[in-house]
Write a structure and sequence with these properties.
By secondary structure, the chain is α/β, with parallel strands linked by helices. The chain contains 21 helices and 20 strands. The longest helix has 16 residues, at about 75-90.
């Protein structure tokens, strides 16, 4: 074996794992890894802040289905990246983060930027470890990719002491990780479906990680064969064609009241991949784990999640897409009342009819127009804020992969996610929705977009405030505004400063021309000048996330 420094050993192992792109903010603590990346064929997307880089890596994994890879430096770099790691953990996204560390010789002296990464990241990610021997780098990297992809996918953090990376060793590479996947027993799939169909008001709820175009097709085939209504969880709307007659809506922020009542009334649920957390259950009120009231068939890849919150009558440790593949062709069972399912879809269509909001710029009409204009084309990303409720309610997703959002509700996510999506799918139209508060958390990544030619379209919903927090504030402390007002830049001028173009929309009918101009190419920002009270008066406060 030829001697290689640790940075080269690490990068060679990444190539073995099939990594083609990484996201980073450079630091002196991992110079050897940067040297290994030089000429490796792995593209290194250099970002402007570690939080944005981490969100890009996470979104890359969502769009491609392959683990996102991140490099950040020690101390401040690592803690900045924690926001994206939190997204990956809550969204069950496979991700491997390499974090620089002080030399082993300096450890436990509170050296410059020293952090105990096992202690800091242990509760936040699936596995946090520190490599203490150069010749064990392949072992740690292989295990990191194995852990990130097996069971419930999620992020892994590997700390890399500076002297471990710079030292040389003649250690061999290890084969690529093979995720552990529990096979689906066809008899179990049939038994689960028979149990579901034995009830009067059954319902399918889809969510969680690991979906694909085939999984979407299998879900739709199962719905057609059984006649069952299908709902999806928060920011998983692209798991089914939203125009499908069996689709009854999404369980998230601003859900249809009819759907929430349907969930309450259901006597049996097939939960496919979802954990059915507080967002999907309106704070555990529509499905209360303390008061079991319906039959639950729960399919999830991690056996530790089964029974963790909701007690299932039938627990199946398997990936939801694999279960769907087994269920989709079972078509000899009782068929649910199709008229009742059709009524659920009709209620959703009624909910989607734009409701009038204050001001000259009607966001409900803008989102509806863009949904019709794209008709399933493109990729939509967003961060967090009341503006997102308009996207959830009025945008129709037609195909898998058309939506990239953080189920953790992270502000600032939309732009980094859009950049990663555009880099992975350069032929797609990629649109980022962001609030003014949300956008300003990561807008420096516009520089990253320009550097790598990620021509995204950013739609900024500007109401001059942190709208969601203001809504809660008005509910709990009416008339006592504190800490929720914002000053905004001229976003069209900002776009020009970053080498792009921009429009300021002050009336709804200006938007179509602005968007068509943006579609011609280049980085583009469309600012929507919204009524200051619009986002805090549109939805019932009881439906807002707490």
């Amino acid at each position: 074996m030829a001697m290689r420094h640790g940075g080269q050993i690490l990068v060679d192992q990444l190539k073995t794992q099939g990594v083609e792109r990484v996201f980073s903010v450079p630091g002196e603590s991992f110079l050897a890894a940067l040297d290994g990346l030089h000429g490796s064929g792995i593209e290194n997307i250099v970002c402007r802040q570690e939080g944005g880089a981490a969100m890009m890596a996470e979104a890359h994994a969502k769009v491609t289905g392959s683990p996102g890879v991140l490099f950040v430096t020690r101390g401040p770099g690592a803690t900045n990246a924690s926001s994206g790691l939190h997204v990956a953990m809550h969204d069950s996204t496979p991700m491997v983060a390499f974090v620089g560390q002080v030399p082993l010789a300096h450890r436990d002296r509170s050296a410059f930027q020293e952090v105990d990464y096992r202690a800091v990241f242990g509760p936040l990610v699936k596995w946090a470890a520190e490599v203490e021997s150069t010749d064990r780098l392949p072992e740690y990297v292989a295990r990191a990719f194995q852990v990130a992809q097996s069971g419930r996918p999620g992020p892994v953090v590997l700390a890399l002491p500076e002297d471990i990376l710079s030292a040389e060793a003649d250690t061999p590479d290890l084969p690529a990780a093979v995720p552990v996947i529990q096979p689906v027993d066809p008899a179990t799939a049939r038994a689960a479906l028979e149990l579901l169909m034995a009830h009067e008001r059954p319902m399918i709820v889809a969510g969680g990680p690991g979906w694909s175009e085939k999984a979407q097709a299998d879900l739709q085939r199962l719905a057609e064969a059984t006649g069952l209504p299908v709902a999806v969880t928060f920011r998983r709307q692209h798991y089914i064609d939203n125009a499908h007659p069996n689709y009854v809506g999404d369980l998230g922020v601003g859900s249809s009241p009819a759907l929430l009542q349907r969930l309450r009334d259901a006597d049996a649920l097939l939960l496919l991949g979802t954990r059915m957390g507080d967002t999907a259950t309106l704070g555990y009120t529509t499905l209360d784990p303390r008061k079991p009231s319906k039959t639950i068939i729960h399919v999830h890849p991690d056996p530790d999640e089964l029974g963790r919150v909701h007690r299932p009558d039938m627990a199946i440790a398997a990936r939801a897409p694999d279960m769907l593949a087994a269920m989709a062709w079972i078509n000899d069972l009782k068929v649910h009342d199709r008229a009742e399912t059709a009524a659920g879809h009709a209620a959703l269509q009624a909910w989607r009819r734009p409701q009038q909001t204050p001001g000259d710029v009607k966001m409900e009409r803008i989102v509806s127009w863009l949904s019709d204009h794209l008709d399933g084309r493109g990729i939509i990303t967003n961060g967090a804020g009341n503006y997102a409720a308009f996207v959830h309610r009025y945008h129709r997703y037609r195909r898998y992969g058309g939506q990239v959002g953080a189920t953790s509700g992270s502000m600032g996510y939309g732009l980094p996610a859009a950049i990663a999506a555009k880099l992975a799918r350069p032929g797609e139209t990629v649109v980022c929705y962001a609030g003014d508060g949300c956008f300003q958390m990561t807008l420096q990544e516009l520089s990253t977009a320009r550097q790598y030619g990620a021509d995204v379209i950013v739609i900024v919903a500007n109401n001059g405030r942190y709208g969601t927090i203001r809504a809660h504030q008005e509910r709990q402390y009416p008339g006592r505004v504190s800490g929720t007002e914002l000053w905004n830049p001229d976003y069209a001028a900002l776009a020009r400063a970053y080498g792009g173009t921009g429009h300021t929309v002050t009336a709804t009918d200006q938007f179509p021309d602005a968007f068509r101009e943006a579609e011609k190419g280049g980085l583009h920002i469309i600012e929507l000048r919204l009524d200051r009270d619009m986002l805090t008066t549109t939805y019932a406060l009881s439906d807002l996330p707490r």
